[in-house]
Amino acid sequence: MRRTRLLTAVVALAAGLLAGTPPALATADAPAAPAPLAAESYTWRNARIDGGGFVPGIVFNRKEKNLAYARTDIGGADRWQESSRTWTPLLDSVGWNEWGHTGVVSLASDPVAPDKVFAAVGTYTNSWDPTDGAVLRSADRGASWQKTDLPFKLGGNMPGRGMGERLAVDPNKDSVLYLGAPSGKGLWRSTDSGVTWSQVANFPNVGTYVQDPGDTSGYASDNQGIVWVTFDESTGTAGTTTKTIYVGVADQGNAVYRSTDAGATWQRLAGQPTGYLAHKGVLDAVNGYLYLAYSDKGGPYDGGKGRLYRYATATGTWTDISPVAEADTSFGFSGLTVDRQHPGTVMASAYSSWWPDTQIFRSTNSGTTWTKAWDYSSYPTRDNRYTMDVSSVPWLTWGADPAPPEQTPKLGWMTEALEIDPFDSDRMMYGTGATIYGTEDLTQWDSGARFTVRPMVQGLEETAVNDLASPPSGAPLLSALDDIGGFRHTDLTKVPAMMYTSPNFTTTTSLDYAEKDPNTVVRAGDQDSGPHVAFSTDNGAHWFAGTDPSGVSGGGTVAAAAGGSRFVWSPQGTGVQDTTGFGSSWSAASGIPAGAVVESDRVDPKTFYGFKSGKFYVSSDGGATFTASAATGLPSGDSVRFKALPGAKGDVWLAGGASDGAYGLWHSTDSGATFAKLPGVEQADTIGFGKAAPGASYQTLFTSARIGGVRGIFRSTDKGASWTRVNDDAHQWGWTGGAVTGDPRVYGRVYVATNGRGIVYGDTSDTGGGGGGTDPTPVPTGACTVTYKVTNQWSGGFQADVRLTNSGSGAWTGWSLGWTFADGQKVSQVWNAEHTQSGAAVTVRNVGWNATVAAGSSVSFGFTGSWSGTNTKPTAFTLGDRTCATG
């Protein structure tokens, strides 16, 4: 099933975010905004989905075992944590004005100094992304970054993003890096560890291939440029620059170039195949082979023909080692990896084999012969060398029951990232359009036994979020997502069993529930064929399709009456519609333009609202007719989101605008007849409501906004009179203008939509708010043992793993471990736990999924921290009032 990440660009365009410069203060004479209150302590997590988007690159460090990174097209980069077998996000600090830097076009882990990692970031090379690209560099494995801006854009979500890696570190002299640029900008080099960059002026080819020259948006018509750089480490010694460098170029006639003098001169490799693009170039320096995976297109969606070639670096001999004849292919090759423990073992993927499945090929004799991950025993019956276990992420079956030869779950699609662990021949990971799959018994392939493929994606959240709802009863969270539809979360710490089905929307654009009957839910969305609206009468657990009125081409926005008896829908392709019942027939609404955003009053079941092009519209007859409000001064464009407050008829909040006009937050208490602009909010893009603060009568407000010159997620407990920023600079998640909502049952809890980092939710530590609705952690009883190990240390920083064992006789249902640092160490980032630190005292608490620890079992977490002088290990650990033994 084809999944497209381009939809996120369309969503952002609709929000008015991608057209031009970042938002600015709307009017010169707007009152000065008071500085927001300082951010209080919030704990941030993801509502677990596990994956959900395209992973075009996986990079293992070749010097240190278990050090690996993944890059995503719009959701940042992540580092693998071996102790917990999870991924840790590394780019959550990217802010609103540089949201494009959440797209990672390439990533390089330093093969000399493993603490160093580099990322080339930027999402689009056309006007959709207002900022140029950058190279980020880290000396602490991505815990913190420094940035060098580039004089051109990069395209982490552009065509060709699965090729690579475009960024590479010299394996002999790691102060030297190369970066392949798109858009005709050529090859770039740094000689000071990525601090400064200059173009390699003598490189002869900037690339010629574009996906679609006729695309006027610039998205598919951009030159895909320089697509990979590979060093031959055998041609250098430690501390000297590597002599031989291979570079892949998006040019179907001239795809591979080589330098044998450390980049002083470059030549096209003679005798190379033509008519293809080289997606990958992977070198086996032991045997002297450069392997190349070719496709006729740039990917990640297209590609109808492909070949695999082996180039002998000593003799210049080219050998076609393709596992199938060209006449038998309907796909290109991209994923390509060599087993560094056994370099004669090579694997490749048919990345663009959409039907019936992707294919993975394996050779143990340098490509002379190949075997397939699956083949036909007797068409359409398949014989798989593998078994799929998606029990940890069950929605990967898509709830499908396809006819053979298709199977569910699929082995994958868009499989451009494929890597064998350089230290473990049994471990392989590969990226798909929805997840990272992996195996840890890969060599069973060669013995004829089946190896097991499982998701290896926990912690990596990569969905673009269009809408969120937190009903007053039932599931705490309902979501509308790009590419995988959306989920009903009954437990935020667990992966839901399935996305919305019956029907499946590729993208859900809008959802709503009936305020007085939260079991009644409606959603609208996009799909290739079939209805674009669906209904549920059990709080989103089960669904049935409505009927589309004529002309519908997309989901648009949809609203449910407060009592659940009526619905108003503003789909793409036709005008606003209303219905009684569950959408078996629709009537065109009058008085409101097509494309209007629609919402319902949360008290009066006959009152609906709409907004389009600066005008607010009101219906008092259930959506049959609308009347334009006389309200003025509202944003003139369509970058607006508004909501009516539960429990108060006619109480409406409206957020939105653009830098060239009105921009901010407005409030109406008379059903939109008049609006008052809040003077303290310079910009606002979303509005949501949550449980009132203790002692307050008005619900808590949440917004993604700029207040007092600061961009962030803000909360007000006094009807917008004052605001508190609840996120911090380490938790920004790029663009957060899609949706926000509080939780009506948990004071302080806020759910934030991101454009690639999934659903983020935060809980407050404010004691006045009852700790965000989280019960105090129970104090475990019984004995405990702690193992504390510093796994890596560098100048000014270190990484440690901690294992806490329940050595008593009863299970724990929550835990809180404390210790004191002797040398002034500071914890900076923790994974698989939450932490606080006061002076030298550190307290680490469980998160939801690892609260229960059975007798005899252990729980592990890790952290990075800073130190100076000495880094003495703690000598005592306490669990509640009990001192733990140390192991």
TrEMBL record:
Residues 777-887 form the CBM2 domain. It comes from the Bacteria. SUPFAM superfamilies: Carbohydrate-binding domain, Oligoxyloglucan reducing end-specific cellobiohydrolase. InterPro entries: CBD2, CBM2/CBM3_carb-bd_dom_sf, CBM2_carb-bd_dom_sf, CBM2_CS, WD40/YVTN_repeat-like_dom_sf, Xyloglucanase_GH74. The keyword Signal applies. Keywords: Carbohydrate metabolism, Glycosidase, Hydrolase, Polysaccharide degradation, Signal. Pfam families: CBM_2 (PF00553). Belongs to the glycosyl hydrolase 74 family. This is Xyloglucanase. It comes from Streptomyces galbus. The lineage of its organism: Bacteria, Bacillati, Actinomycetota, Actinomycetes, Kitasatosporales.
